[in-house]
Amino acid sequence: MNMKRTLVKEALGRESPMESILVKGWVRTRRDSKTFSFVEINDGSCLKNIQIVVDASLPAYAEIGKVTTGAAVSVSGELAASQGKGQKWEIQASNIEVYGTSDETYPLQKKGHSLEYLREIAHLRPRSNLFGCVFRVRNRLAFAVHQFFQQKDFIYVHTPLITANDCEGAGELFRVSSLDLKNLPRQEENGEIDFSKDFFARPTYLTVSGQLEAEIFATAFSNVYTFGPTFRAENSHTSRHASEFWMIEPEMAFCDLEGNMDLAEEIVKYLVGDILDNCQDDLSLFSRFVDKGLLDRLQFVRERPFKRVPYTEAMEILQKSGKKFEYPAEYGANLQSEHERFLSEDHFRCPVTVYDFPKEIKPFYMRSNDDGKTVGAMDLLVPKIGEIVGGSQREERYDVLAENLKRHGLDEKEYWWYLELRQYGTVEHSGFGLGFERMLMFVTGIANIRDVIPFARTPGNAEF
RNA sequence: UGCUCGGUAGCUCAGCGGUAGAGCAGGUGGCUGUUAACCACUUUGUCGCAGGUUCGAAUCCUGCCCGAGCAGCCA
Predict the structure, then answer these.
(1) Spatial distance from the CA of A446 to the C1' of B66 (Å)
(2) In this predicted complex, what is the ipTM?
């Protein structure tokens, strides 16, 4: 007979016992008694393990020595109310079969491990409690992103990962090439590398943003979003930067900066609320072991309105704060990490959207305001993490955009199609980038971006 | 890339000039409807690598490698 396997999540959520049940998973721990053993099994479907009672009178008990932490097993038996405290259900085993054994060298012993150590065993850490929670929440968060936009009839667009755009000013790029590094073709005139011989007949890179292409789709579908990987070759060693990360980039036609800020705040609240409603068990582990204030902060973010403040006013707040900053808060300067943290953690004590930044510190595509000094940019800052959203209203006026390209030293010809969007049926439009991993850090309380990515890519690290 | 901190048993860490320790994990025995089980006993080390100082270096110095934090860049 072929019995259907039941997931641990489903078994533990049962209202009634089951005469026969089959579960499969990995052994977390075993406790032996004289006449029976307790075995706890986890299959990743939820944080909790299911307790198996294996009586010494069973034929299979002869093999109980193989049922060690880390082993893959299959258990059949009866789902019954537990006689002990601590769990509602347990399985009285009639048979237990070991698929793959494990031994004392198994790196994930049933003791707390440091995050740094677990990072070094990225092939096994998903089997730990903490990372099980992280990646279940990651899954749910990705689902919620799509749900949010689909409910609003945004069109999901797949923008290219390989791009010829190298001058967005957004950090270093990874080059994509199929040229033989040991035998590079050279231009006769100047000896420089001849990229016309390369695969795409031009220099190409991994994308740092799908925004420009998303703008194309927004001027056809009105409301669109991208959700995919992006790449930055910056040599950053911080807890919030990775070389490969996922970004969510909505782009909306017929939408100004205010509508853009509305959407940014709405999605942050929505995602927080969705995780609060659907990942309670996982969140409870984070709030116990990672960040005691997590649940309060998430509730707060879901319920309370965010603050909104123009850049100029933000600078005044920083100047009047009397606080000594390493980098002085002066008009024309970028908001430093310490400034962002002061605004969201000390002054407003909630998420803050700063908008209307000096044009000198922002990219060419942002829309010039009538004051001639600022552009319609916005950053959404959250406590502990800082910038989680960065966006702007895009310059939709052909002449102004062409002038901006010139001012930034960029070649109009390279942006011919971007300019043509302003030549044919141009319209005000806006969008932003939401860092998926930063959102996940915010929602889980995990402090290091390397611990919310299954296999993190950072400078010098791409093993798994 | 700059500054700071760190690398000692499988893991977490103590030792900081006199020749290597604890807790946990593992092993053995006992006990128990147990639940990060408990009790007793017990195994384990190129002290990151390479030089140097010293009678003697895990300990001090130099270089290198690796990791972490902060800053810049940004999401």
Answers:
(1) 23
(2) 0.85
